[in-house]
Structure formats: structure tokens, C-alpha cells
Amino acid sequence: MDSLIGVLDGFHNLTGLPWWITISASTVAMRLIILPTLIVQLQKTAKIGQLFRKLPPPLPPPLSGRSYRDQYSLFQKKRRELGCPSFLWNFAYFSVQFPCFILWMASIRSMCLSNHPGLDNGGILWFNNLTEFPHGALGPVFPILVAGLHYLNVQISFQKSQAKHYPGVLGLLAKYYKIYLDILAIPLFLIAYVVPQGSLVYWTTNGLFHVAQQLSLRNDIVCKMLGLPDTGALAGNTSPKSLHEGQKIMQRWSLGDSRMQSKLESSTTPKFMFEDSKIMDENVSAESSSPEELLQQALQYLGTGCQDQAVPLIRTAIEKNPDLHIALIGMGQTLFSNKLFAEASVCFEHAIPKIEEQDPLLVLAYFSAGLSRKNQGDKEAAIKLLQRLTELKEPEQVMNKACYFQGFIALGSILSNEGRKSEAAKYLRAATAYDPGVERFLKECEEAMEDQSSQQSTKPPDLKGP
């Protein structure tokens, strides 16, 4: 504090500017000096968002058998291999900006309370004496500015944020956090009455700079000049992390899950599948929103089980971009759940060529396409699709691995019913390494093979002559 007061005093004596301009200029200078930290943070977090989907979870998934230490070591190793920045970069700017805010605030307040030379007449207009607290008819001006700028910054921050659309507890927490920040404007208004006017000059300047900074970083031209992602990515509308969450929703909705199968049996075909539904959601407009934005909103609805709201959004996203494979899989799963297997298989098979081999959704696409063909009665097509699934590399994540081996089990079941017991046993044997419960089916298949073999060996020879 003493060093900062010395710098402010030296700058004031050197330039001869009034103290209120000196305080404002030092505030702007401080914010400009720490601005590169924010730019680097945004660049790092954008890269984290691009690589996030390729990282294993930092904590061990349930029933994985891995310890916390081993899972975190795997996470760190993979992060370093991909060149993914540390997640601590998310807190870089705050760790610099907050101490600077406190330092400037405390230093200027100390100068005002100690009647630093020149501050008693270093202001202008109604705040000529910077050592006094707000008073008189114009006393509320600074408190209103402080509280109003805080409220404005909160609204700008949440204006394009998707946090309010998060399903479940996350959305609720985001909603209440914004309410808390909004209400915080009231105590800030009251606190400003017991802060010297010199400190309020700093506080107001800092708030104005923050508003200007947020608005500037929402401009695509400014972002391009600073080497930052576009405003949509900064706002979180179409970030890879959001699509990663969408993949997790798709994978949780595995068509081979027993809970899902019971749901399928009780499903009925809803009318909205055959009507030209209009998107009534107030947050998403079909005309102005991109396919990725429509898909993200639809995935959030699927995550909360609201199919009626999700389907029109997915349909519109596919119409705008037929190559959006996540939307095709989402529509395919919805059609499958309503027993429209032919339409579902078209969606899944159309999505497969558009998915990269390392993408975990490729497992789900092959598995779902195979089940769709099976339910249509097209056993040969189902076998080919599920065999393609078994040729893929075994996934590392538990959720993907479960779907992967369910494909082995489904393939073994189809082959067994078709009389191809030896082939079925091969796939069931591979699945037992993941799920010991499959051993019962494998044993039945092997017993059937033995019976068939013994029948062939005891069959009497053909005694008919030529």
C-alpha cells in the first residue's frame, strides 16, 4: 500500500493533474496492465474446451475398479500428451484482478482517511472534497453508480450464458447464483455511503472499465484481433464441452439398457412425430439459431426427459445441417423409443459415415443401428452392423465400454438364434470378460454346440447303394 501511494503521489506531482483524474487514470492503467492475463486465460480455456472431450474423467467412474490416484494420473498423462493447458487457467485473471482491486481500494481509502495532501480539494462538482463520505442532495449519485454498474455487469455476463438452460441441479444453482449477484447490488449501494468519495471515484471507474471490457470482448472484430474464439464460443453456446455433455446424454440413453427396454415396451407413438411442430421455446428461435444451438437446447431437454420439446428442435437442426451426426443420433434414439425402427435405422446409418473413428458416439451409432435392423427383422443387416462394432477398439470409459459389450451380446444372441452357434460363442466369450453374467448364455450356446456335434457323430451311415 505504501508503495502504491508513493507511485500515485509521484504521478500526481509529475503531471499536475487533479486527484480525481489521477485516481481514474491509475485505475485504467492498472486494468490495461492486467488485461493480457485475461486474454491468455481466454485463449487457454478455448483450447481446453477443444480438447476436453478427448480427456478421460479426472475421477474414477463408478464400478471402474480404478483408484483415485490411478485415474488422476491417467488424466494428467493424457492431458500432457494432448497439450491441454492446466485447468487452473480458469482462475488466472481472478487471481490477479481481485488482489489489485483490493490493493487500489485500500490504498486510496487510506489516503482519504489520513487526509493526504490535496485530496480535500482534489475533486470536482459535488465531490470536490475526496476525503468526505457521500452526503447532501447529490450524495446518492456514487452509491447508485456503484450498485448500477455492478448490476449491469451481472446482466451482461449472463446475457448469452447457457448456464440458465442447464438441466437439473446445475441450472437451479446457476439461477440462484444470478439472483444472489443481483441482490448484492443493494448492500453495495449501502456500503458506498460509508466509503470516502476518493475511493468511490476509483470504484466507479473500475466498474465502467469492466462494462467496456465485456462489451469489447463480445465484438467479433476485437476477438479476431486478440486471437480469441468468436463471441459464440466465449459465451458457451457451441463449445466442445457442451457437445461433450450432449454425447454423455446420448450414451446414458443406451438402447440396450434394460431400463430403456422396459420403457420401449410401454412407449406409444406420439402425434408430434408426424406433425409440423412449431418451436415454441422462448429461448431458441428456429430462424435465427444455428443448428448447434438448436441441438444443444434439445440435448438439455433430452437430459431432463422432455422428448416433446426436444424432437422439434432436433428435426430443425437436421434440416439446417443434415451432416450434424449428434442430431441424427438423437433423432434416431427418439424414433427407436417410439418403435419407429425403420426411420431410426436411417438416422443411425446416415450418421455413421460422419463420425470419426475415435469418437465414442461411433460405438453407440453401430449398436443402435444394429438393434434397429434386428427389430425390423433384417437379421443379416443387423449382424453386419454389430460385427463392425466388434471391430472397433475397446473404449476406455465405462459408459462406452458397457454399450460396446452389449453389442457383443446382441450379436451373439442373433447368431445363436440363426443357428450359428460357434460364431455366437466367440462373441459371447469376449463379453464375459466384461460381464460375468453372460457366462450363462455362453454355457447354453456351448451345450447346444455339443449336442449338435454328438448328433452328427451318432447319425447312422447312409446304406443305400449306388
Automatic annotation (TrEMBL):
UniProt xrefs under InterPro entries: TPR-like_helical_dom_sf, TPR_rpt, YidC/ALB3/OXA1/COX18
Residues passing through the membrane, by range: 20-40, 87-106, 137-158, 179-203
Compartment(s): Membrane
Keyword set, alphabetical order: Membrane, Transmembrane, Transmembrane helix
Region Disordered, annotated ranges: 446-466
Domain of life: Eukaryota
Topology class, membrane: Multi-pass membrane protein
Chief location: membrane
Gene3D superfamilies reported for this sequence: Tetratricopeptide repeat domain (1.25.40.10)
GO molecular function terms listed in the Swiss-Prot or TrEMBL record: membrane insertase activity
GO terms under biological process: protein insertion into mitochondrial inner membrane from matrix
GO cellular component: mitochondrial inner membrane
Membrane is among the record's keywords: yes
Record's signal peptide: none
PANTHER family: CYTOCHROME C OXIDASE ASSEMBLY PROTEIN COX18, MITOCHONDRIAL (PTHR12428:SF65), OXA1 (PTHR12428)
Family as reported in the entry's similarity comment: Belongs to the OXA1/ALB3/YidC (TC 2.A.9.2) family.
Stated name of the protein: ALBINO3-like protein 2, chloroplastic
Native organism taxonomy: Eukaryota, Viridiplantae, Streptophyta, Embryophyta, Tracheophyta
